[in-house]
Design goal:
By secondary structure, this protein is an alpha/beta fold. Helix content is 33%, strand content 25%. The protein contains eight helices and ten strands. Helix 5 runs parallel beside helix 6.
Length: 249
């Protein structure tokens, strides 16, 4: 008998409401989503459509008003706050439009931080952080603080931090949004490389349709509903290693 395989992520009947004055703002209601293991999924839509809200719910950073979220067989929406925080730290890597590096710490120390929180010994955390930064091409920038790095370097430190704990899932919210076109293309190429190298399941929120169409699937969030867009770039041609990333910035 073939073993049953669960999707990497499932959202069932997802609803999110916020209080707004005397009324309520319904971001979406009865939302359904499945992300296959190993898939690269892009979510696009107009500003204010709820894309970031959805990503926060999938990553356990916020809780839905109603509905259920599963990672494999584990139901995130049943976890207590401490258990959920531990799950996020171990299983999910996050990348944001802003890098959110701690300015008083070096690149190495920023990448070590989630591992130290997990309880790793300092030497073990430093070795893992160094390996991830070298993978990002930052082996010579380990001891530079955030303000001493370029925008592209800062975002690569953020990528290294997201990968430091060997997560199964990478969630990225506008990872190229604060970058110029050339640096953004480099980050897009790097995201493709690390997705393959680390055997990730990746979900990206983006306004960049060129980036979105390089993924396996593109969903548009509009009027509280997710719908499939046209045939993605990745289904027609697989990018070569490092495509879009001619040199690091």
């Amino acid at each position: 008998m073939t073993a049953c395989r669960y999707p990497a992520i499932r959202a069932i009947g997802l609803e999110k409401r916020y209080r707004s004055g005397d009324g309520e703002l319904v971001v979406f209601s009865d939302l359904q989503l499945e992300v296959a293991e190993g898939e690269r999924l892009a979510i696009v839509g107009e500003s204010g459509a709820g894309k970031s809200t959805l990503l926060h719910l999938l990553g356990g950073l916020d809780r839905p008003t109603r509905g259920t979220i599963y990672f494999g067989e584990k139901e995130l929406t049943r976890l207590g706050d401490a258990e959920l925080a531990d799950f996020r730290n171990r299983e999910i890597g996050f990348v944001w439009q802003s890098h959110y590096l701690l300015p008083e710490f070096t690149a190495l120390e920023n990448v070590m931080m989630p591992l130290l929180i997990r309880g790793w010994a300092r030497r073990q955390a430093a070795e893992a952080a160094r390996a991830r930064l070298e993978e990002m091409g930052l082996g010579r920038r380990l001891h530079h603080r955030a303000g001493e790095l370029s925008g592209g370097e800062q975002q690569r430190v953020a990528l290294a931090r997201a990968l430091a704990g060997q997560p199964r899932v990478l969630l990225a919210d506008e990872p190229t949004g604060n970058l110029d076109a050339r640096t953004g293309e480099m980050i897009i190429g790097l995201l493709s490389e690390i997705h393959e190298a680390h055997r990730l399941t990746s979900v990206y929120v983006t306004h960049n349709l060129s980036f979105a169409r390089r993924c396996d699937r593109v969903l548009k969030l509009e009027a509280g509903t997710l719908s499939e867009m046209g045939e993605p770039f990745a289904s027609r041609r697989h990018p070569t290693k490092g495509e879009g990333g001619a040199g690091y910035v």
